[in-house]
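Re: your question from the hallway

Yes, I did run it. Sequences:
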Amino acid sequence: AREQTFVMVKPDGVQRGLVGEIVARFERKGLKLVAAKLVQVSKELAEAHYAEHRERPFFGELVQFITSSPVFAMILEGENAIAVVRAMMGKTNPAEAAPGTIRGDLGLTIGMNVVHGSDSPESAKREIELWFPEGALTYERTVD
Ligand code: CMP
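Structure:
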């Protein structure tokens, strides 16, 4: 089914100048960019986004890191977009992510793993509403 998914380039990726490379990979794959913005994340947004990890020992570090410097947030749309994005990102731990994936090619440690993508249709809906209350744009391709 045609889906929308929430994706963000984390502070490490933005600081390393990897936004273009990462967006380019998704665009080349055929996914459609329907919303995008650079965001300085508040503690409130970080805690809401990572609510499911609240009890984890690394929760404090996670919130600290994601609020440390801007992230590039986007909504991507396409057939099976949620699973396709996750496959393209690779495993959460870049040390285990396959070469050819974003984390496999560009990441090194689990804390700074370059990119985040929604892990299910439920997460995608929740994260899109949380990060883009203004919604996505609707447009058609009219050029070759
Ligand atoms: P993400 O997909 O953004 O969702 C939760 C994040 O927690 C995950 O990527 C990792 O960056 C981070 N994470 C998972 N395990 C650890 C860990 N052991 N130490 C620090 N961060 C972690």
